[in-house]
């Protein structure tokens, strides 16, 4: 679990399922975030206007005003805000619609709490870097303002792409990451090269980490890579 100063980072949770809302509220409060909740679209917009959250975690399927309508209204407000949409449907149409309306990320239920934390961390790094101090994950420390990644108190000499790749892997500690997913997140959707480029960069990172036996960045044949922090 990353350690960082999250005081003053405001999150709005919107879901009509009480047990999900309570689970997320308790978990994210324990992580140090300032949490607001809403169980429907109208209440969500009222909370949004009153509290000006940095990140809105927004369920798609709600009675009355659905998540797409709420996302559209929030993004039209003109304020700087990140929206992570939650849905029980793994359908391309829903994902495209949400992203078209300005959603910044997308999670399909059921999802792990650690994955949600990673997505929140990514949005903060990308859209609110001034809110974050140095973030620690086990023996790793990430200072995104300086674009430095420290491992066991040593600053790693990394190219810009190596920095983005290792940061992405570290922030998704314990999650299996396929080559195609890594390409999308690090190189971008319009990358026209071969998936083997990921292997080349992983090999370079292992060399720089002294991970000769692949105990830190593990290869799962046919699935991808997983970081196992000690």
From TrEMBL:
Pfam families: Response_reg, Trans_reg_C. Residues 132-229 form the OmpR/PhoB-type domain. Keywords: DNA-binding, Phosphoprotein, Transcription, Transcription regulation, Two-component regulatory system. InterPro entries: CheY-like_superfamily (IPR011006), OmpR/PhoB-type_DNA-bd (IPR001867), Sig_transdc_resp-reg_receiver (IPR001789), WalR-like (IPR039420), WH-like_DNA-bd_sf (IPR036388). Residues 10-124 form the Response regulatory domain. The modification 4-aspartylphosphate is found at residue 59. The keyword Transcription regulation applies. Residues 132-229 bind DNA. The keyword Transcription applies. SMART domains: REC (SM00448), Trans_reg_C (SM00862). Gene3D superfamilies: 3.40.50.2300, 6.10.250.690, Winged helix-like DNA-binding domain superfamily/Winged helix DNA-binding domain. This is Two-component system OmpR family response regulator. It comes from Paenibacillus harenae.
């Amino acid at each position: 679990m990353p350690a960082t100063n999250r005081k003053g980072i405001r999150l709005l949770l919107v879901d009509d399922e009480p047990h999900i809302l309570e689970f997320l509220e308790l978990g994210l409060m324990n992580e140090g975030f300032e949490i607001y909740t809403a169980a429907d679209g109208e209440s969500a917009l009222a909370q949004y206007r009153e509290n000006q959250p940095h990140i809105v975690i927004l369920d798609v399927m709600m009675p009355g005003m659905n998540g797409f309508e709420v996302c559209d209204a929030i993004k039209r407000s003109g304020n700087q805000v990140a929206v992570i949409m939650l849905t029980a449907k793994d359908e391309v149409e829903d994902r495209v619609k949400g992203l078209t309306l300005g959603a910044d990320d997308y999670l399909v239920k059921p999802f792990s709490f650690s994955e949600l934390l990673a997505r929140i961390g990514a949005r903060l790094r990308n859209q609110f870097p001034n809110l974050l101090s140095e973030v620690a994950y086990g023996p790793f420390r990430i200072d995104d303002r300086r674009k430095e990644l420290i491992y066991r108190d040593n600053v790693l000499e990394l190219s810009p792409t190596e920095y983005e790749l290792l940061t992405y892997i570290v922030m998704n500690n314990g999650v299996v990451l396929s080559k195609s997913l890594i390409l999308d997140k690090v190189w971008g959707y319009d990358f026209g090269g071969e998936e083997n480029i990921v292997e080349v960069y992983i090999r370079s990172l292992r060399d720089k980490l002294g991970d000769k036996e692949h105990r830190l960045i593990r290869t799962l044949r046919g699935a991808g890579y997983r970081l196992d922090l000690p």
